[in-house]
Structures are given as structure tokens and as C-alpha cells.
Amino acid sequence: MPSTKLESFFIYNSNFGPKEGEEHKKILFYHPPDVPLDNKIKQTGLCEAIVTFTHTFSPDHPCEALHTQKTRQLFYQPEKDFWMIMTVTIPCNEKTGRDGQTYIEYHDEDVQDSVFDAVLKTSYKMFRLFMGTFTRILERFNVEVLKQRLEHFFLRYLGTLRLSTSDILDVFNGIHFLPLDKNMYLRIQCFINLTEATFSQVKYTAFLYNDQLVWSGLEQDDMRILYKYLTTSLFPSALESELGGKESPKGATPTSAAGSHYGRYITGPPDMKDPSNLGKVPRIYVNTETSYEELYLIVYRALSATICLMVDASVAPSFELYQKLDAFIGPQLSSLGSDISEQYAKKATSSDPVFKYIYFNHMNLATKSTVHTKKSATTTITNIPPDIMRILGDINADFYRHGTSRAEEDGETIMKTMSDCWVVGKKSDQREFYVVLNQKNANLIEINEEVKKLCATNFNNIFFLD
What we know:
The protein is α+β, with helices and mostly antiparallel strands. It contains 11 helices and 20 strands. Strands 8, 9, 10, 11, 12 and 13 form a 6-stranded antiparallel β-sheet that branches. Strand 3 (65-67) and strand 4 form a beta hairpin. The chain is globular and about 75 Å long. It starts with 5 loop residues before the first strand and ends in an 8-residue tail after the last helix.
């Protein structure tokens, strides 16, 4: 059966084309680009009309989704007067009726509003991280520059979307943390404090091991989107370049001039012996709601330990700074990476968990999942059927379906599927816990007791209301 695909994605601002004959000026970005201009104008005009019409009935809650037989359209207003519209196809297949005639059956339930709404919002936040806000770009430059930046970013970004595998984890957009003992954590904390004290240019720091976060000095919302970029884009592409022979294999030989450590830049100079090549270092924008800071993102790795240094963008980093950072950070990060790997190896278990669960904490954005496994650096697969994944998404959406008052309430849902599988969703004290149990002969009371045991065994330090 064909999967969900992106049909169109566009951004408009009604203030830019208020007069008849100037409608095309409203469109700031449109994908796919080869659509005739008249069609772009019609689609934008229809969405404008829908937004205006629905505003009459619900001024405080703008239109979020439009359901049709063949498509699902998601609406998002990230900034005043700017609208982002994403249209995805509804999966369908051909069937034969009793009369022998073939017809198309559309599977509307396969496309969940909450999931694709999250995908749309994340796309804006990713743009904001690397380009700044729409409004700020307009203030500093003009509409043409905004259009250029939108095109430059989204033409690449939209190609990375994996809509067919989007699920409840996209809704959470959380962070996988690495639990360490207190001595190791304090060593890392001291290392970060010493780095920031030694190099005044460093405004914020984040420390990761593999794809798990250990420490961050950024605000949560900024770190959550930076974490997504690091783990789904930067780290996988760095790994591919290593495996492709573009870089020396990670940790194979010391990379410093003195041969004393294994550190190297992922963003920054690829060769510390070549001062003419400073490499590529992305600019990022953080705290856009308040101080609006522009920073360079320097990412440095030794073994599997990674430190992200966010440096003031008012002065471009010099090769001398890169040399000093390399000499200071390299040996210490190599030592930390080696020690963490020993601790990590002791804790890691290869056995498959006996039950499948997803956990999310709204307070610190911590996510844990035994449902998702990494197939490759860029591909994550689920080890439960797609219909069960959709049920998890539906239970999550139901917790928030009736506005703010419902979202603040705790709740629990227990259900049994047609395949005799039990699915449980708990929401308690800003935490969510979803578990899938294959115990077809169990009853409701037994399942409830089993979930309590699982919580006590695996989340014994976390308070869940009964």
C-alpha cells in the first residue's frame, strides 16, 4: 500500500499581496517549485479563506487541520501573519467490489493530525535555529532575502522528512539522556566549567555521548531542536564521511600533532596542520523570544564523546582559537570518552526487553523507548506493528483533545486490540508512559497489576499516580 507522502508545503503572508493582481506576492515559499503560478495562487487563496472563515468561530484557536478524502492539510502560524501549510497524501489501495468493479479505498486513520502537526512545527523550529525568525530577517533585510533563505533551507530540509515513519516520538520530540554515576557526571561538569572559564568566547556548551545527552547549558526548547539536528543530521553525516574514508576512522589513531589524543572537529578545521582551511561552522540562533543570540556552533569529538561549543558570532573563530581549543579539550575529552565507554559497556545489555514501552517527561524532555531501534545512522524502525503505533498516537492525542484544561489533567487508558494485544497509556504529573503487552488471556485487573509492577521495576524513582 502506498505510504504517506508530501504533496505540497508553502509559506505565505497576506500582508504582502493585498491588492488584486498582486496575490503572487503573498507566497514566500512553495514546494514543489514546478507547480504553475496560478495553482500556487489558488492553493494559497483557499488556505487564506479557510483561516479567515474558521477564525470567526474560534478566534483564540486558529485552524490546525483540514481533512479531505485524498489529503490532509496542516496549518501553523509560527509568527504573526505568517502561515505555514503542509499537505500530505492519504494512503490508499485498490480493491475489488462484489460487482467486480475496482475502487480506491483511502485509509484516513493512518494519518494522525498530532503527528504531522508536530512535523510541521519542528520544520519551523529547525529553520529558526539556523536562519532566525521570519520577522527578524525582514527587519534586518527585506522580503527577497527572506524568500532566498526559505528556499535555501526548505529545499534541502523537506528532502530529509520521513513522513511514512513519523509517529508519537515526533510529537514528543524529546531527548535521550545518558545516565551516569555522580563521579563521572561531576568530572564532566568540571570539564565544561573549566572550558567556559578558559575561553570567554564560549557562551553555551552541550556534552553528548553517542546520541545521548549528558549536559547542556542551553534553554530546553533550543536544546531539543539542536539535539534533533545533531542526532538526525550532523552525527550521521560525520559517521558516513568516516566510513567513506574521507576522515580517519574514529578513534583509530591519535589525531593531534603531538599524538596525545583522539579529538577532532566535526564542524571546524578538518586538518589541524592546514591553517588555510577552517572548514564549515554553522551559525545558530538561540533565545529568539528574548535576547536573540547569534552563535557559531563548533562541534568537537573524541572517541564517542562530543562537546558542542556555542561561540559568540560577533567575531569569527580564528585558526589560533581552534588550535587552543584542540590542545585544551582533546586530551581531556579523549580521557572522558574512554572512561564513559567502560561504564557504558557495563550497563549495556543486549537482551531484548520483555515488554515494549515509551516514556516521556514534559519537565526535562527525557524520552526512553524500547519500541524504536536504530537500523542505521539515519533510519529508525519500530518493533511493533504500525496499527499499534497509531493506537499509541491516538491515546496521546486523546489526552490533549479538549484544550488546556484536559491537558493539565492526569489520566489512564487501557485497551485490548483485535489481535489480543493490550495497550496502556498513563499520564501522570507531566509524565507519559505507554506500554504494549502481549498477554491475550489476561483480564483488565491483571493488566493493571502488571503495569504497576513494570513501573515499580523500571521507574522505581518516578512517581506515578494510581
